[in-house]
Design goal:
Aspartate Aminotransferase, domain 2, Aspartate Aminotransferase, domain 1, seven-stranded mixed sheet, 12 strands, binds pyridoxal-5'-phosphate
Length: 394
């Protein structure tokens, strides 16, 4: 079923993208086929020359993958979406499609570790340099822009300190300098924040996280307009081949149907947990956008619907104390992954940010007492009790 734009978000999340076959199936089918058959040689020629739209080969298009792309594009408010094998291949495809040697990226410092390595180690080899700036300081972004800057890249809120960028301000800045603003919308998802409606040019996702929401599959996506995404990024996909598998697309498609319900429930649990943590002895500081104490709290309700599902807090006593709290848990999963129904707990300084030098970690504000929780959907009383065990022995 093809859905007109006037349907509400929840309806698009459930109805968009499935084009029912003559079998009349109600559920979305998984098309496990690598190639497609043509009626005759003339049609084959027309497909290959792009004179006739349609499937050729599943590295290019697949109906299950297309259904996921159409649905996610409708949810982000973009014209076009290209699904990829992972979140990292979404960023790589975007960069290969839109940049050339000599171009520069200005990026937030507080981004996913592998993204930093991709920019600094691999893109740099091909003559694309990246400068890093503090996410929440528009003045620093402006100062870093040069004549060759082509992309501004960020995540908001940031990991693990939950700092937020003002997307409208940065979109205006990007456009005044003829640059594109790219937002990794992994933490909020379109259920809580739609950067394209605030002026961003491109959104990318690690579908591995909340879009799936149950820790089953690895995947990614890039969303934007027909020219940038439908032509440039799609061109990289069909040529270089980091395509999404139909099975994974089907899992993500079903994940999107419950995305809004899940994100609001994650955020409700996270808000309750953050408020509770603020009152615990031994907790020095809690980082959560939904708290009045958060420096960009004013963006809640305008840019970002709720505080989201990630809560970070600092305990007194550094690494030893943080590890003690983590090791005292019985229910929470000790893993750096996030965006799952299961609550996860991690020590950023020695895991996700372990490869940084001490100076880099200090500049990024990642102290040894910091603990990050990706709050899941278990009963909040059980999550609190599991953390209380460790906090009690600090
Ligand atoms: C996990 C993650 C990625 C990378 O996605 P993969 O699916 O693991 O390749 C990129 N950005 C953010 C914010 C992430 O959390």
């Amino acid at each position: 079923m093809s859905t007109p734009d006037e349907f509400e978000f929840a309806t698009r999340a459930i109805r968009t993208g499935h084009h029912r076959t003559p079998e009349g199936e109600h559920g979305e089918p998984i098309f496990t086929t690598s190639s497609y058959v043509f009626s005759n040689a003339r049609q084959a020629a027309a497909r290959f020359s792009n004179d006739e739209p349609g499937n050729i080969y599943s590295r290019f298009t697949n109906p299950t993958v297309s259904a996921f792309e159409e649905r996610l594009a409708a949810m982000e408010g973009g014209e076009c979406c290209v699904a990829t094998a992972s979140g990292m291949s979404a960023i790589l495809s975007l960069c290969l499609g839109l940049l050339k040697a000599g171009d520069r990226i200005v990026s937030s410092r507080g981004i996913f570790g592998a993204t930093t390595v991709l920019f600094n180690k691999y893109l740099a080899r091909f003559g694309i340099e990246t400068s890093f700036v503090p996410l929440a300081e528009p003045g620093a972004w402006e100062k870093a822009l040069g004549p060759d800057t082509r992309l501004l890249f960020l995540e908001t809120p940031s990991n693990p300190l939950t700092e937020m960028a003002d997307l409208r301000t940065l979109a205006n800045l990007a456009h005044a300098h003829d640059c594109l603003l790219v937002v990794d919308n992994c933490f909020c998802t379109p259920a809580l924040q739609r950067p394209l409606t605030l002026g961003a040019d491109l959104v990318m996702h690690s579908a591995t996280k909340y879009l799936d929401g149950q820790g089953r599959c690895v995947g990614g996506a890039v969303i934007g307009d027909r020219k940038l995404v439908g032509e440039e990024v799609f061109g990289v996909l069909r040529t270089a081949g980091p395509s999404m598998s139909p099975f994974n697309a089907w899992v993500f498609l079903k994940g999107l149907e419950t995305l809004e319900l899940r994100m609001l429930a994650h955020a409700r649990n996270a808000q309750t947990l953050a408020e509770w943590l603020e009152k615990q002895a031994g907790v020095v500081r809690v980082f959560y956008p939904g708290l009045d104490s958060h420096p960009q709290h004013h963006l809640i309700g305008t840019q970002q619907r709720t505080g989201g599902g990630i809560v970070t807090f600092e305990v007194r006593g550094g690494r030893e104390a943080a590890w003690r709290v983590i090791d005292a848990t019985r229910l929470l999963s000790i893993t750096a992954n996030l965006g799952d129904t299961k609550t996860t707990i991690t020590h950023p300084a020695t895991t996700t940010h372990g490869r940084l030098t001490d100076e880099e970690r200090e500049a990024a504000g990642i102290s040894e007492g910091l603990i990050r929780i990706a709050v899941g959907l278990e009963a909040i009383e059980d999550i609190k009790a599991d953390l209380a065990r460790g906090l009690a022995i600090l």
